[in-house]
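Case study: Major facilitator superfamily (MFS) profile domain-containing protein.
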Amino acid sequence: MRYMAGLGGIRGSATHRIYSVTVFVILASLENVAIGLPVPLYDPISRSLGVSKGAVNLVTAASFLVTAVAAVGWAYTGDRSRRKPLLMGGTAIWAVGFGGCGLTHGYLTYFAFQMFASIGLGAVASVGFSVVSDLISPRRRGLVMSLWGLSHGVGTLAGTLVGGVLGAGASPDAWRRPFLLMAGLGLLAVLAYLFVYDIRRGQSEPELAALFEAGGEYRHRIDRSDVAVILRRRTNVWLILQGLTAQATFGSLVWLPQLLQSRAQTQGYPESTAIVVGSVFSVLFQLGGALSIIGGLVGDRLQRRTPRGRALVAAAGIFAGVPFYVVLFFVPLRVHISAGAGKSEIVLAVLRSVVTEPTVAACFLAALTALALTSANSPNWFALLADVNPPEHRGTVYSMGNLVNGVGRAAGNSLVSVMFRVLTRALPPPLNYATGLAVFQVFFIPTGIMYYLASRTVAGDIDAVRGLLRARGRGTGTGTPEEDQPVEATTGS
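Here is what the predicted structure looks like once written out:
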């Protein structure tokens, strides 16, 4: 940190902290740009590498799983040590991996570079969550976590858009451009990380305020025996398990650009035009995710009235969003594009259709509502994990949830592609895509039930963690699992 000493009063100032938060949010967004990037490019990638589209999708599904598994190791290490070097290292790894994907000419090397990139991506979300949770007081966790979650959603949209627009073209190597761009952005991000503020673990907790004001430090770190403590909190169990079913549905939605692209192709547009149309429509239809801020605000407000608030908001949003998704999948789309139109003209034609074509407007409103409702899940999930776990457990418990999320997302992404192929025997594209995506909405039902079950245990788990932190703030906590966990209450209102 010698380079920071020369900056005088800037280090640790409000400006420095704002800069640091901005870097963390941008990096979380870039991570999801990387995840969404290949999806609209399945066709040109498969032709270039000489494999089927299913084989390229297999790489995406495997990358979800590898990212989630790697995140566990990154998070556990981050809960025991300094987090900034880990974030820099993870970012450098995924940048190199994406550069390799953009340069390779063989399927096996493409697969290997994607897996290498996925290892690095595992660091960004898990270690980053631990850092961000230390910046936010419990009172405002829903709002700030909605911004953190929103950066993930914006990144996924940007990945779809960048991949579809920058990667489309007559050249067989056009798909490589987005991968090389991401590699460059990742390396720039590593440089930006050099100047971020090292956030102290636990600094946002009211129960530890006196400790920090007296010049003390929160020195508790996770131990292997703490894994059992984490899993004894029943709220953690429900928050982790809900990701299996929730991400089965969200993983299937990765195919939304393919549904929209197929609709454009049935209108007679060539593949290059259809890729741009599908990507732009997909971005437009997912803008409702920006309304996760409302879900975070509602969760904050209701949480101040009852400890069950955040979990109930998430459950209600999941259940209410299902019918709007079904409408989105089945309402037909019509867009008018001149022959020989360039990319900018195609984008303008798609945007114009939202106000000139009634069916497009209906799809847009259905998508906006569906995403606004189901995205309430994200900020409240983040905030609940922070509420029911002490600072040294948060990265690890997040990574455990993220691992289950990765399994669910990979399963959803893979199984829905099998369903599309089976349905093709009776239903031609795009009807096979629409039907398959609608069927996968059923996995949202157990997700909502698990959030409701979490709402019944969350009050006792929050009280237990606050009692633990109060003891540590007074210097009476020992740090041992047996004596440092005063009450493992798991029942609530």
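For the exam, be able to explain this: The mean pLDDT is 85.
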